[in-house]
Every structure is written in C-alpha cells, then in structure tokens.
Design brief:
154 residues, 7 helices, globular
C-alpha cells in the first residue's frame, strides 16, 4: 500500500481504535462545549430573570412571596440562593454541587407551585431539573476536588 492510500481511512483496513479514538475526542470536545454552554445559559437564567426580581423586590416576586406567607425575608433568601447557585455553576470546583443545590431548590419550587399556586407554573422547575441533573452527573468528578480543597483548608 502506498503512503497516499495508507493515510486515508478505509473501512475494514484501519485499526478499530484509530478512527474511533479520533471521533471520540471530537465528540468529547463537542460534549464539553455543549455542557459548558448549558451551564452558562442556566447561570444566566438563574441570575437575571429568576434571582434579580427577588433581589430588587419586584412587585410580582413580592406578591408571590406574600401569598406564600414568607414575606420579603423569604424572597431575598431564595434570590440569594439562586444567585449563588448561578455563580457557582460557572466555578469548576463547585459546578456539580451547585447543580445539585439548584435541583433541590427546584424540587421545593415544584412543591410550592403545586400546593400553593395550583400548579400554574409547576412544569418550569421540572424542566429545569433535567439539565441540572445532567450537569451534576457530568461534573461529579469535581466533587472529589472540592473535598480535597476543604480538607486542606481544615
């Protein structure tokens, strides 16, 4: 076989790992980019349309929290938690924990939506749980880094 034909992959004549390894690397790179893009989009969502109205005391947020009986303290607390989660989604050592924490917050939001607000927006927290679970699982390797960092600080 000449050098010209040896460099062109032909089905059945190349080692099984060569082409697969190249495609796996490209596929892995695309998956990392897609996951990072998802994290940025979720962080923007939690920071701007979700946390910001609570933190500035927007009328719609204030009315909802008054109806819950949580008042402004509850509203500001949830806003701070959402903003902290949004920031932590962008920090490699915290991104898995942040996704789990925001997921727990979404479970609570689902319960509140169904119990207090007659399920009007109950689908939103459920939809957000899917990408948060994906991020928590995909970035779970960073949890060990976080534990090592915390142990070093103690």
């Amino acid at each position: 076989m000449s050098k010209a034909t040896a460099s062109v992959p032909v089905v059945g004549s190349t080692p099984a790992g060569a082409v697969i390894a190249e495609s796996a690397t490209a596929r892995g790179r695309r998956a990392r980019i897609a996951l990072r893009t998802l994290q940025v989009l979720l962080a923007l969502f939690y920071a701007i349309p979700s946390a910001l109205p609570k933190l500035i005391g927007h009328v719609s947020a204030a009315e909802s929290f008054e109806r819950l009986g949580w008042g402004s303290a509850g509203m500001y607390t949830i806003g701070v938690l959402e903003l902290a989660g949004a920031i932590a989604l962008l920090m490699p050592v915290l991104q898995s924990v942040a996704a789990m924490a925001l997921g727990a917050l979404m479970v609570g939001a689902f319960i509140v939506q169904t119990a207090v607000f007659d399920g009007q927006y109950a689908a939103t927290p459920l939809v957000l749980l899917v990408p948060l679970a994906l991020i928590a699982w995909a970035r779970r390797g960073h949890n060990g880094d976080l534990v090592r960092l915390l142990r070093r600080q103690a």
